[in-house]
Design goal:
The complex is a heterodimer of chains A (213) and B (353). Chain A has ten helices and no strands. Chain B has 353 residues and is mainly β. Chain B folds into two domains: 234 residues, monomeric porin ompg (Porin, Beta Barrel); 108 residues, Immunoglobulin-like (Sandwich), CATH 2.60.40. Chain B has a 14-stranded antiparallel barrel. In chain B, a hairpin with a 2-residue loop joins β21 and β22. The chains are: A mainly alpha (213), B mainly beta (353). At the A-B interface, α3, α4, α5, α7 and α9 of A face β1, β2, β3, β4 and β5 of B.
């Protein structure tokens, strides 16, 4: 190793240390709850995400969650980095102009197993924010509904359903699963019922009036 | 497929008859698919005189697939029959086509109906047309429709309005209409209202009443009524399926430790303040931590011996939280969706609309 290469390595190390120190100095004060070895590494990950135009609050929260749960530093750093990568993938699928809550929900949906194409379709299908549809999709998958079934149901409702309709749809699925229905069947039935209710369909059954003798 | 059974009592006064009390059993089966739905319902009524009435209805709709454009077609059919003692029996079979124009918060439809109906005599043809609009605002849906029908030599035109409101476990429905023109079908103003209050996921109380018009298609005659019923709901097909284990016991956020169970309820109001209620038996201290508290533990106040709550500003979206009881390990409460937390354990996820 020549003197020149040694000098280069020393300069690079000094610059990296300075960058880490700068990041640590400018870091979110809430990160003070992390141990001194973890804090600058998390701060660097957060700064990188900020530089890439990604929301940083979810990253801070993920780090704080680790701190509250007493997770080891390397696990916290890797969780933050992984979330940052997911946020980046979500933005790629959802396009520029996506709001931070949408990105966070999109990252969770990707993590749950939804493909980027589903996120893109959802973006096209709905003019309003898609944070709640994405959250409902993630929630359904976590409840045991296959990704394809969950995505088909949410996509079918997304164009006209309001956030509250989607949350109600989610509750209906949860209730039917708790009553013993298979998750896929519960999802399809609840989606169809929600669609009919939202769109004022089912003309044939309109004679049904509760309690009329 | 879902099913409900209403067990109720009514007081009813059909026009031209004496008032009577009645007990009723009304089973309803509903089969939903994205391409359509099928409903089968029946009512068995036993009047205080001991006389009995039976009604049955089978109705279904086939829908064209949802599309990017706002139009959607619906083809519906219904067949029904009713019988009172041995002297009054009706049946009808009608088919209907509707074209819907659907928006996110409003829509309209135009439809036509054709079929046949019978009142113990030769069948009579049914021809009807209707047009309607609807709009939704918050939890309230309003509908306005005009229906013109010709049943044999009976012709009538109805104006109908209805409102449906639902919030949490309570659903309210009201209907106000008028038969503004008629030849042989009577005239007048009518209105009905109902309240359905769900207690848990399976049981509801239904209170309804009002006055409805003669329906020459289904054979019902004008009457006034007041009903109270207990509705029991089921989901079918049933099979053994693992319930949320957190209902019976809670696993710690580490995914392994068995701890006391807690259930979370989320009540959001319009001002973005969210009331978080945790139900847990015999605790001295209940705390939550989540991405809306910077993962700092927040102690809940005791509302009753097994109910703890706190109201916090929680923005719309998906959130993560855990619960801690008496300073023990963090647990994932029932009422949230359990998901891996990146730290070798689990976290509870809930959505605020």
């Amino acid at each position: 190793m020549t003197l020149r290469s040694l000098l280069r390595a020393a300069v690079a190390t000094a610059l990296a240390a300075a960058f880490v120190a700068t990041a640590a100095a400018a870091q979110d004060p809430r990160l003070g709850r992390l141990d001194p070895g973890t804090r600058p590494l998390v701060a660097v990950a957060i700064d990188s995400a900020r530089a890439a135009g990604l929301p940083t609050e979810p990253l801070v929260q993920r780090a704080l969650e680790g701190a509250t749960k007493g997770a080891p530093g390397p696990l916290i750093v890797s969780a933050v980095q992984r979330l940052a990568a997911d946020l980046g993938r979500a933005r790629e699928a959802l396009g520029p102009g996506t709001t931070p809550p949408e990105l966070e929900a999109g990252a969770a949906a990707l993590r749950a197993g939804a493909g980027p194409a589903v996120l893109t379709q959802l973006r096209r299908a709905r003019r309003q924010t898609i944070a709640v549809p994405l959250a409902v999709l993630t929630d359904l998958v976590a409840s045991g509904v296959p990704v394809d079934s969950a995505a088909a149901a949410v996509l079918a409702l997304a164009a006209r359903a309001r956030d509250a309709d989607l949350v109600e749809f989610r509750r209906a699925v949860e209730r039917d699963i708790a009553l013993g229905a298979p998750p896929t069947a519960a999802t399809a039935a609840a989606a169809a019922a929600a669609d009919a209710r939202i769109s004022q369909l089912n003309a044939g059954a309109r004679e049904n009036r509760p309690g009329r003798p | 497929m879902t099913g409900t059974v209403d067990l109720g009592v009514s007081t009813v006064h059909y026009d031209g008859f004496l008032p009577s009390g009645a007990a009723a059993v009304t089973p309803v089966l509903r089969w939903d698919r994205p391409a359509g739905m099928l409903t089968a319902s029946g009512t068995y009524l036993r009047f205080e005189s001991g006389h009995r009435s039976l009604q049955g209805l089978l109705a279904g709709s086939f829908l064209t697939p949802p599309a990017a454009h706002a139009w959607r077609g619906e083809f519906a059919a219904s067949a029904g029959a009713s019988r009172y003692l041995d002297f009054a029996s009706f049946w009808h079979v009608v088919a209907e086509a509707r074209l819907h124009r659907l928006g996110a918060e409003r829509g309209l439809w135009v439809g036509g109906t054709a079929g046949t109906t019978s009142y113990g005599t030769a069948p009579r043809p049914v021809i009807a047309a209707d047009v309607g609009v609807w709009a939704r605002r918050s939890e309230v849906t309003l509908r306005l429709a005009v229906n013109h029908a010709q049943v044999g030599d009976t012709t009538y035109t109805d104006l109908e309005s209805s409102a449906h409101a639902g919030r949490g476990p309570v659903a309210l429905e009201a209907k106000l209409g008028a038969r503004v023109w008629s030849r042989g079908g009577g005239r007048g103003v009518y209105g009905e209202g109902s309240a359905t209050i769900w207690v848990g996921g399976r049981t509801a109380f239904v209170i309804s009443g009002g006055r409805y018009a003669t329906d020459p298609i289904s054979g019902s005659i004008t009457g006034r009524y007041l009903s109270a019923a207990l509705r029991v709901r089921t989901a079918a097909p049933r099979r053994a399926f693992p319930r949320d284990p957190a209902v019976l016991h809670a696993r710690g956020a580490d995914g392994a430790t068995v701890l006391r169970a807690a259930r979370l309820e989320v009540h959001a109001d319009r001002n973005r303040a969210v009331r978080l209620v945790v139900r847990v038996a015999s605790a001295a201290l209940v705390e939550i931590a989540g991405d809306f508290t910077d993962w700092q533990p927040v102690a809940l106040g005791s509302a009753s011996p097994d109910t703890w709550e706190v109201t916090l500003p929680v923005p719309s979206g998906v959130h993560r939280l855990d619960v801690r009881i008496d300073g023990g390990a963090w647990i994932v409460p029932a009422g949230t969706t359990r998901a891996p937390d990146d730290y070798g354990g689990d976290v509870g996820i809930f959505v605020v609309p």
